[in-house]
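Single Protein Entry

Contents — chain, fold
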Amino acid sequence: MKIGNINLGERPVMLAPMEDVTDQSFRQICREQGADMVYTEFVSADALIRNIDSTLRKLTIHPAERPAAIQIYGRTVESMVEAARMAEAAQPDVLDINFGCPVKKVAGKGAGAGMLRNIPLLLEITREVVKAVKVPVTVKTRLGWDHDSKNIVELAEQLQDCGIKALTIHGRTRSQMYNGEADWTLIGAVKANPRMTIPIIGNGDITSPQKLAEYYDRYGVDGIMVGRASIGAPWIFREMKQYLADGTLPEISDSEKMALLRRQIAESIDRIDERRGILHIRRHLAATPVLKGIYDFRSTRIAMLQAGTRVELEAILDHIEQDILPDKSRRILP
C-alpha cells in the first residue's frame, strides 16, 4: 500500500491517533514493535495557530518514528489551512484530517465527527488543505453522523475527488461513540466500489492478530489501523506482523512486556515531569493485558494506579514482576 510516494508494504498495520495516548514515546515504541506507520495525537487547528505550547509540542517527530502522520482538526477553512501549513513545516510524512473524533468537546463544536453534519464544509476544508500543502493529505472519518445518515460510500468518492491520498474509516457512526460493535460492511463496500482508486484503511475493534488477518481477508482493505488494543500493549504490533507473515505468534515474556511499560513511564516523566508523567501513563498501566487475570490483584492494582512518585511506582512494579507474575498459580481465566 502506498500513500503518495510512501510505500508501507502489503497489509500494513498502523497505530491510530489517540489523544493522551500516542505521544512521541509511545509512537516510537510501537514502530519498534512493528507498526508500519504511526499518527500523532489530535492537533487542534485553533490551538496551533494561537501557538499554544502544549499543542506545538505535538508536532515534534523523531526520525525513529517515521513514517509518521500529523493529524489536525478544526471547523473553519481558514484555521485548517493555516494549521496545515504549520504542521507541514514540522515535516510529517503525511498530513491527516480528523473528521472522526466523536467526543463532545470536539464534535459538539462542529469539528471532528461534527463535520459529518456539514458535508459541504467538510469537502471545502479538504480541498483547500490539499491545495495548501505539498505533503500527502489523508482523511479519517466515520460511517456517518448516526444510523440514519450512513453516507460513507458517497462521501468516500467525494473526498477522493478533493485530492486525498488515502481514507481511513472507523466502523461506527458518531452517535455510537465507541459503543457497540464496529460495522465493517460499509468499509468493505467502499473498498469494493470500482470508482475508488485511493487506499482504504479500516479501523475499529481490531483486538487480536487473528481478527486482523480475518478482516483483511473478509473486507479486502488496503490497510488496517489499530487503536485501543495497543494501549498498554505496544507489542501487539509485533504479534500482528508475525501472524500475518506466517500464522504464528512470537513468544514475548512478561519481563519484556514490563520493560516496555517501564520505559514508557521513564520517558513520560522525562518528557513532562514526575507528577504529570505518572498521571499520563496510568491509562496504559490500567489497560495492559499483562496484568489481567491475576487472582487477588485488586489491592496491588489500586496501589499501582494511585502511586504518586516514580520511586513508589517502581517499587510496586518490582513487587509485581518479582513476586506476582512468576507465580503461575495466581493466573485465572480472563
The longest strand covers residues 37-44.
